[in-house]
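Issue 218. Parser rejects a valid record. Input:
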Amino acid sequence: MTAYSDYDPFAWIYNQHWGTSFLPVIMPVLENMVLRKLPRHARILDLCCGTGQLAAQLVSMGYKVTGVDGSPQMLAYARENTPGVDFVQADARTFTLPVKYNAVISAFDSLNHIMKLSELQQVFVRVYETLKPGGIFLFDLNADEGFKQEWQGEFNIIEDDHVCIVTQTYNEVARIAKYEVTIFRLRDGSWYRTDLNLLQKNHAPARVKAALQKTGFENIEMSGFDWQAGLKPLAGDARRIFYMCRKPKSLDLV
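Output the parser choked on:
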């Protein structure tokens, strides 16, 4: 079993400041593109579920949710945030589950952390095998313009008992973005420092679509996203792209 321990030191600060931040973005998208097409009490897999706040939202709406993540510490917070949900520690590229799902969701640019297209293809194959015939797969990725505009410079979070310093850089040639994080946390009267680096890969939309097609997915839709306007037709200035596709209803191709 692969444990993504690099994400463990980030879990606490992520749970505090990022765990719910994407919900106002993802929920309208989910309701429009996925949830209204599912049966009541459908099974949904939250892939790369992080600290579980999206899973909690879906459970509150009556869906049967499973969460998968590679970080043991992320999952520890997920189990606190959403008791009763089955959270599974597994690698997104190799996971297997005993039941099939009506939908698989991977939100908040989680799959940008898959650094090779060949490994992203592995994720798609595992998702395909996990879905029921006709099942829906929805995920979002940071796009080139998003990395250029948003992954630059430094920002800080300063609270009485913790400080988080984040430096963002983007290498346009390598198409790799880096999140350099320094965390100071006050515990038992002493300050403790943690340093970590997280990477994301800018996967070209045409290659992502080709990998989905190669896997066997059909009805592939690609939509741009604007933080103010929401979903819009995909254009070159898109900072984030939502991908939605289906497993064929009657024929498995892989």
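Fixed in the parser; the record now loads. The mean pLDDT is 94.
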